Amino acid sequence: MDDEKHTQSLRSYQMARTSAMIAGGIATFVAFAIFQIVGAGILETAAWMFALGAMTFSGTFVACYIGYAAAAKRSVVGQTA
């Protein structure tokens, strides 16, 4: 693999990972707030926080990685417009 393809692949992975971490964190916070507002127990809240955060993270990561990888194939690293 040449340097340009490796750089594009690494950049796609890092951008997708960052997007997924942000989305997972937001989903976890929202789940905590909602479950505490409705009066759920802490164990139930923690279980749902983990489940919703993990699902959001994985779904966002896959979708973003596919999108970023497709966009990277159409561009050249280091090229300015």
Structure description:
Keywords: Membrane, Transmembrane, Transmembrane helix. The protein has about 80 residues and is mostly helical. It has a domain at about 25-75. The chain is about 85% helix and about 0% strand. The protein has two helices and no strands. It has helices at about 5-35, 40-75. Helix 1 runs antiparallel to helix 2 (about 40-75). The longest helix is centred in the first third of the chain and has 35 residues, at about 5-35. The protein starts with a helix and ends in an 8-residue tail after the last helix.
Task: Provide a concise account of the structure shown.
The protein is mainly α and 81 residues long.
| Helix content class | over 70%
- State the major sheet: none
Low-confidence segments, given as residue ranges, are none
Mean pLDDT: 90
Instruction: Write down the Rg.
Output: 17 Å
Order of helices and strands: HH
Keywords: Membrane, Transmembrane, Transmembrane helix
Features:
single chain; 81 residues; mainly alpha; 2 helices; rod-shaped; membrane; transmembrane helix; transmembrane
What topology emerges from the helices and strands here?
Elements: H1 3-37, H2 42-73
